Amino acid sequence: MPPAVEVESLVKHYRRSRRGLNGIDLTVGQGEVFALLGPNGAGKTTFVKCLLGLLQPTSGSISLFGDAAGNPAARRGVGFVPETPRFPDFLSPREVLRLHGRLIGLEGGDLNRMIDERLEAVDLADAPNRVRAFSKGMIRRLAVAQALLGNPRLVVLDEPTADLDPLGRRSVRNQIAAVKERGATVILNSHLLSEVERLCDHVAIVHKGRLLADGGIDELVPEGQDLESVFVDLVEGAGN
Amino acid sequence: MNTVLTIARASITEHVRRRLVLFFGVLVALAAVGLIYVSLSDDLTSTLLGTAVGIATFFSLTLLQGLATLAAVAVSMNNIGRPFADGEAMLILARPVARWQYALGRLLGSAALVVALCLLLVVLLQGINLIEGRNLGMDLWGHWATQAFNLVLLVAITTLMSALFGNPILAAFVAFFVYASSNFVSTLYLLVDTGRVGGVPGAVVTALWYLTPKTLISPLAMERIAEGGNLVGASTMLLIPSTGARVAWSLAYLAATVALTFVLVQRKEL
Q: Is the Cβ pair B97, A49 closer than 8 Å?
């Protein structure tokens, strides 16, 4: 069984910025809930974009379930919530989900049933008719709904609880737990370390494009400490 | 193909909901009312246009063509630049969708709207012809078929410019300039072709002539140019001797434009 994600010597340099990734090696097993942590500008979002083929790596390789990440077929069965989701604002939430459902090959009654379930799960069943009338929190919830459409085997969430109120955060947490329960893999970028500690079983910490730590929560966090203090020590220890 | 059609359908919905289709629909309706009024007023027709040209042909070749050109640019100026800049394309491309499929879907959505508009205009003009008691018959359909092709070419050029520039207004202006440059450059090329200009300027004009689009010209338009005594227009048309060569040239230009768009979209970072 190939790992869900396998990254080897991943390097990404931008033309106009010093930020990027400088040689990341990482493996995420199938069924794991994996968190990528790091301060702002560490390269977390760049990593996620490379993973999904949205950015072309400068060098190195990434595979999803054994297929090269640059190949669109590798993204079949992958759901994604970006840091700042944007939907066509002239569509209704139902139409957004229908568009995404069709792109992953769903049609007819199955698609309609899944759309109803997803909208219900994120409490958008009675939402306004157009996305343009949505608040940031509602857009974030719609993004979670589209990512989980069709029960993907890998879900990539970039700050999924930003802009959400406590009820929305709890709802997203419950959905991540449900994804984990059905055996799918989750990759989570989050600044909320307590959330990560509660949900994840595998954590990596990046800083300035380099991997500082990679392992199970139990391995990285010694008895009597919490993830936040380990994170701060590692990042401050790495210096500027 | 399903993926491309799904994206094309979303693109059509976008233009319908953003009221672009409504805007051009209202303009066409106003033009229809105006044309019917003019065609029923014999005195006005002869005063404004002269009966020799015929109002249907006149409007078909000028005002409504201008309207359709404007519509083609309007429905394609946001095809690539905006969704990439604001991140809307990111969620689509995170699906099992190749970038060329995304670009082709956006382009096809705009092209479908432009072809539908041409169809609406030809039906409208046919109706006015009947009111006028004239029958241009297949000439009118042939004319608007060539117009539809030319406008699809304009949609492709605008989509390419949208991939090149982030700003839709800039993309629209440059696309229109490239599209409209054909006649001007062909006129300059006449000077090279007849040996009046040579050397470096001649080479530059020749290069420009190869780079500018060659649009199709319908028999109806040729007739009008002949009737109007537009010698420059008539002579630039003669630079490509056969209709077949012009069709081949236009198709090649369209294919090259679409291919270049795919390359730019492939290299675009999100």
A: no
